[in-house]
Specification:
By secondary structure, the protein is α+β, with helices and mostly antiparallel strands. It contains 15 helices and 14 strands. The strands form 4 sheets. Strands 5-6-1-7-8 form a 5-stranded mixed sheet. A 4-stranded antiparallel sheet has the order 9-12-10-11, covered by helices on one side. A hairpin with a 3-residue loop joins strand 5 (98-101) and strand 6. The chain starts with a strand and ends in a 9-residue tail after the last strand. Bound molecules: 2'-deoxycytidine-5'-triphosphate (DCP) and calcium ion (CA).
Length: 406
């Protein structure tokens, strides 16, 4: 049975929320992110502001030079969280098969729901109408047989759009679009693909798989499939998180201890940041190694006191790695670290000793800075070594096999 997946994304989300609260801002060039004389970047720009070239991630100073008449707003997270909750509640009324992505975006599996609403198109129109009526915000919707095509469709339809891609029509829908429109293709991959003479998704789809593997390793396969509109990822309603892990495959199998350590440190930081974002602490830390011949081992250790600090995660992982590598002569193909036995983080600062307190405060300070300026804004001496190994974006290094397990 072919699936019908919707991707729903609110237009200029932060700005739209501000415009509902202050209707004078409607129809104007508006930027949420802060005063233009401040350091920082545009978080959200109204479509009127985008006409001047403004976009998310642009430094505020540049934005005000390009569009001096723009109205700059500081913004406030609680307002956006409230709007987000209402948005998700509306969607949940339409289908229980709902996967929120961030605050203003969700996938919805509407397979079999067509008859209730007449057609999937009418269902999407009804969703858009309710969001407009109850939140005062426009949503854009893409519909297709899989997630990636639905997402590209909603993006392309913006603002206030609705695009349905028929089953079987995915490749021809994607083909003429520039490669940057394909989710997962960042600046670096785009540059590399252009260097190979590949400019459109269609050209990517007909590039021999081997060529892509040579240049992009395991991600080459994923790129190839997505470009053809093949994506069998399910719409997954969020469940209780049982574990958090991060892993990556190396471009080349390695024995280099400092590279292994640096990568482990980075992965530990990513897992730790996720753990803290979810307000959890872990009791168990697990190292995963896959060797050149694909033998995969995991080694776990329970820590005395539940933890959410990067240092403890890394130290434990490193001890496990030392032990494992002492028993194995093969080079390493993949490395991963995970935390499990999760409990709600308890605020027991007074029970921690001084150095644990300092670590905890340090981790939180780093999380705040990274939230504002991107993951690579702060790096430990150890992870800097990865600059030459993995492609780097604002959100951190691009790993070969990012995984977030439940
Ligand atoms: N956001 C942010 N910093 C970024 C990108 C986004 O703070 N670099 C926040 C502000 C956005 C919200 O996340 O309003 C949603 O992000 P989107 O990428 O969906 O952007 P918008 O909703 O603003 O615009 P649109 O979806 O219409 O392109
Ligand atoms: Ca949006």
């Amino acid at each position: 049975m072919t699936r019908r997946i919707m991707h729903i994304d609110l237009d200029a989300f932060f700005v739209s929320v501000e415009q509902v609260l202050n209707p004078e801002l409607k129809g104007k060039a508006v930027v949420v992110g802060g005063r233009p004389d401040r350091r920082g970047v545009v978080a959200s720009a109204s479509y009127e502001a985008r006409a001047f070239g403004l976009h998310a991630g642009m430094p505020l100073g540049t934005a005000s030079r390009l569009c001096p008449q723009a109205i700059f707003i500081e913004g406030g997270f609680p307002k956006y969280r409230d709007a987000s909750q209402k948005f998700m509640a509306i969607l949940a009324d339409f289908s229980p098969f709902l996967e929120p992505v961030g605050l203003d975006e969700a996938y919805l599996d509407a397979t079999g729901f067509e008859s209730i609403h007449g057609s999937i198109h009418q269902m999407a129109a009804a969703i858009k109408q309710r969001i407009k009526d109850e939140l005062g915000i426009c949503a854009s919707v893409g519909m297709a047989s899989c997630k990636v095509v639905a997402k590209v469709a909603s993006e392309l339809s913006k603002p206030d759009g609705l695009i349905e891609v028929s089953t079987g029509g995915e490749p021809s829908f994607l083909a003429p679009l520039p490669i940057a429109k394909l989710p997962g293709i960042g600046k670096q991959t785009e540059r590399k693909l252009k260097g190979l003479g590949i400019k459109t998704i269609g050209e990517l789809a007909i590039t021999p798989l081997n060529t892509l593997k040579i240049h992009f390793g395991t991600s080459g396969e994923v790129l190839h499939r997505l470009a053809k509109g093949i994506d069998d990822r399910k719409v997954e309603p969020p469940g209780e998180v049982k574990s958090i892990s991060r892993e990556t495959t190396f471009g080349k199998d390695t024995r280099d201890r400092s590279l292994l350590k640096a990568t482990l440190h980075y992965l530990g930081e990513r897992a730790g940041a996720d753990l803290r974002r979810q307000g959890k602490q872990a009791r168990c830390i697990t190292l995963k190694l896959r060797y050149a011949d694909f033998t995969t081992i995991t080694r776990s250790r329970t820590v005395r006191q539940t933890t959410d600090t990067d240092q403890t995660i890394f130290d434990t992982g490193e001890q496990l790695m030392k032990k494992a590598l002492a028993q194995e002569k093969q080079p390493v193909r993949l490395i991963g670290i995970g935390v499990s036995s999760l409990t709600e983080a308890e605020k027991q600062l007074d029970m921690l000793d001084k150095s644990s307190q300092r670590r905890e405060q340090l981790n939180r300070a780093i999380d705040r800075i990274r939230k504002k300026y991107g993951f690579t804004a702060i790096q430990t001496g150890r992870t800097l070594l990865l600059k030459d190994v993995f492609p780097e974006t604002d959100r951190g290094y691009t790993l070969q096999t990012p995984s977030l397990s439940r």
